[in-house]
Write a structure and sequence with these properties.
mainly alpha, elongated, 2% strand, two-stranded antiparallel sheet
Length: 223
Amino acid sequence: MIRNVLGSVVALVGAAAAVQSPFHSWFDGRLGRDYRIQDLFDGISGASSSVMGSILLPFLFAALVTLVGVVFRLRWVVALAGLITLGFTVLWMVRQGQEAGGLTVDGDGNGLGWGVAQALAGGLLLLLGALLMSGRHRSAARTGRTSEPYPVPPDDRPDTWPPTQEPGPAAYTSPGPEPEADPYTGPGRHRASPADEDTAQYPVQRPDEGDEQGRDRYHPPHP
């Protein structure tokens, strides 16, 4: 974050210096805005030019490119603006050297002026700002990574149709106690029920049968 702010400030200062440079002397006291943009390709002439048709035009374009790079934090865009500024400045120096037979600097205001130095400094500051900027960081969506520290396991359950119905209230009722298993596993496991066993062990006797048996037992028959 700090690198982006510092690089943006340096780049904006360089763009401002490049835009201001055509309003200073470029060669022998002639302002940079007096040079036509076509003189950079056809050769330097003595014809004057309008402000928007002068060498100021490529510097304004470089400043616009710088603003785009600073807003979107694109280092290569800011570097492109620096290359545009340096490229047009060096191209003017080549054409002016061909026209004058050489480029000189003296203390009397002849030769190269302050405007050329300011344009070169602006281009170098733009490149320096691009180097200082850290650029944009890749987002999670762009790199294909999720913000979750642990991935959610996929659901391997089959998709059934129609969807299963939720159990009703009867499914949540607790079942009764299960019958205990018979521990005896030997022969005769499947025997009669306790009610039948009690009946077999203690047979029910009718009243008349009991009286007859009692009489037979205690009162033997007469001869």
